[in-house]
């Protein structure tokens, strides 16, 4: 019998530790993967959204994540279409 519990680093839910499972669900595993991917891209000086190198002035706003000009345009357009 092995009732060891693990804490999911994403949602902080405890779940039965099975094998090398690190996250409570596939959803949290995916979130962790995406976070790491975005972090890696930021550290590489790339756009966290599409992974391309920045091609213009950084769109930093209050130290928030910045995107390349292409993605900035994309988000801008999406924001306008929601309104
Ligand atoms: Zn979780
Ligand atoms: Zn981009």
Overall description:
With 83 residues, the protein is mainly α. It folds into 2 domains: 1-43, no CATH class; 49-83, no CATH class. Helix content is 39%, strand content 7%. It has 2 helices and 2 strands. It has a two-stranded antiparallel sheet with strand order 1-2. The mean pLDDT is 84. The structure holds zinc ion (ZN) (2 copies). One zinc ion is lined by residues 8, 10-11, 13, 23-25, 28.
List keywords for this structure.
binds zinc ion; 7% strand; 2 domains; elongated; two-stranded antiparallel ribbon; 83 residues; mainly alpha
How many helices?
A: 2
Amino-to-carboxy terminus distance: 56 Å
Helix content: 25-40%
Residue runs with pLDDT of under 50 for 5 or more positions: none
Radius of gyration: 18 Å
Question: Main sheet?
Answer: 2 strands, antiparallel
Structural class based on helices, strands and sheet pairing: mainly alpha
Task: For the largest sheet, list the strands in their spatial order.
Answer: 1-2
Strand content: 5-15%
How many individual β-strands? 2
The small-molecule ligands in this entry are: zinc ion
Write the layout of secondary structure elements.
Elements: E1 5-7, E2 14-16, H1 26-43, H2 69-82
Antiparallel strand pairs: 1-2
This protein binds zinc ion (2 copies).
Residues 47, 49-50, 52, 67-68, 70-71 line the site of one zinc ion.
Provide a quick synopsis of the model:
This protein is mainly α.
